Amino acid sequence: MLWLPAGRISRVNGRARLRVTRGLVWLTVDGQLDDHLLEAGERFVLRRGDRALLQALDATAGVEIVERAPATWRQWFIALLRDAGLRLAGVRA
Question: Which domains does the chain have, with CATH numbers?
Answer without folding.
Answer: 2-88 (2.60.120.10)
